[in-house]
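Researcher: I'd like a candidate sequence for this fold, 400 residues long. If you have to choose between options at a position, lean toward the conservative one.
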């Protein structure tokens, strides 16, 4: 009796595997030539995982007589792994378009933050929004990302800053994880800013004493799937020692460390992340040479966000230095009310133009390395047998 499979992609001009030997990330010289097949076909099973990839004629022989729910003729087209967005803030209420005019007039990020705008403005509106309102908006954002080729998204909380609203945001992410055809990695980011009326130390105490124990309970009973813990380690927000305490608390309950660091001021966040065994650190516009070396040695991923530097007119992260030093470089859109970008192809474009990354480096950073930054490169980020069948077909005969 013939076996049934979900999908056959036939006769692609080019299939960009990215990896072909089970690599969990690509760094250094390995980035110079990604794995590519010419004239290939690919089979996805009914379980959603890749069953076979190879020359079109060999796949045709192997699967002759078998049935497929869908067949797509990819003649003259190119197949890529689904793109991975390693850093987003997609659950919120409260537009901040008015702040763009302030930035154009010369206000800095911290000027707006200290005037009650920025994160605090969004917090006020997110606290007032219903769970259903947040979900409808979130679903719309995710659909835009998916149309631009993203199939795995890291999603942060962080616009609650109190336990009830942070959990409300995480429940919205959990609902989307269960209902939508998109991979999600959930991040608890209760230390995104210091709540009004509290000091950073008081906020950290609250997170460690109340937020994390409740989160642990909800994870253990299966109500919430949360993967990562994030802190905004920044001058005027959470300093290095307070950041350490929160991240260590999250690590003890099994969360991956994946946090904001060295964005507006040099904080030695990269050195801290390497010391704590962080999976990833984002931003890094102000990272030190020592921090770069420490991240390379610790295999701590650098999630670079070219949209942020573009929007805030910051100096670009030193992508070339990181790549030359062997850091695992990943990319994210930093989608949020302040940087409204759904498109990982646009992020890759900015990475090439503004951060001087090559096209293979940018594609690896938006696939296998972004998956690695989320601890998911064993299932996502490349087209290999046994991995999730997340893929993008583009109407071009070659990727480059």
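Model: Candidate sequence:
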């Amino acid at each position: 009796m013939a076996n049934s499979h979900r999908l056959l992609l036939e006769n692609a001009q080019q299939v960009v595997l990215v990896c072909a030997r089970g690599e969990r990330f690509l760094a250094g010289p390995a980035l110079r030539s990604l794995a590519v097949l010419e004239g290939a076909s690919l089979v996805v099973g009914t379980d959603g995982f890749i069953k076979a990839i190879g020359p079109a004629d060999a796949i045709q022989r192997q699967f002759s007589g078998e049935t497929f729910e869908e067949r797509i003729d990819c003649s003259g087209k190119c197949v890529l792994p689904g793109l991975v967005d390693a850093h987003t803030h997609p659950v919120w209420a409260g537009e901040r378009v008015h702040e763009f005019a302030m930035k154009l007039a010369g206000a800095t990020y911290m000027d707006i933050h200290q005037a009650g705008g920025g994160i605090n403005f969004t917090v006020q509106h997110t606290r007032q929004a219903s769970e259903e309102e947040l979900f409808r908006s979130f679903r719309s954002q995710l659909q835009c990302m998916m149309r631009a080729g993203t199939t795995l998204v890291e999603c942060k909380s962080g616009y609650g800053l109190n336990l009830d609203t942070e959990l409300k945001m995480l429940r919205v992410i959990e609902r989307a994880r269960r209902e939508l055809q998109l991979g999600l990695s959930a991040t608890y980011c209760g230390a995104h800013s210091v709540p009004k009326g509290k000091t950073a130390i008081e906020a950290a105490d609250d997170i460690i004493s109340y937020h994390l124990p409740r989160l642990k309970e909800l994870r253990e009973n299966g109500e919430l799937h949360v993967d990562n813990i994030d802190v905004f380690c920044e001058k005027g927000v959470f300093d290095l020692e307070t950041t350490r305490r929160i991240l260590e608390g999250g690590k003890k309950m099994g969360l991956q460390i994946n946090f904001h660091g060295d964005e507006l001021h040099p904080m030695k966040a990269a050195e801290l992340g390497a010391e704590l065994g962080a999976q990833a650190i984002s931003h890094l516009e102000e990272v030190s040479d020592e921090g770069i070396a420490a991240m390379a040695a610790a295999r701590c991923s650098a999630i670079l966000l070219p949209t942020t530097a573009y929007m805030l007119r910051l100096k670009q992260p030193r992508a070339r230095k990181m790549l030359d030093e062997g850091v695992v470089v990943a990319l994210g859109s930093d989608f949020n009310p302040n940087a409204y970008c759904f498109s990982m192809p646009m992020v890759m474009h900015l990475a090439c133009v503004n951060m001087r990354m090559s096209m293979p480096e940018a594609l690896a950073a938006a696939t296998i390395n972004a998956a690695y930054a989320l601890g998911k490169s064993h299932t996502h980020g490349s087209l290999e047998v046994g991995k999730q069948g997340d893929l993008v077909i583009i109407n071009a005969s070659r990727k480059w």
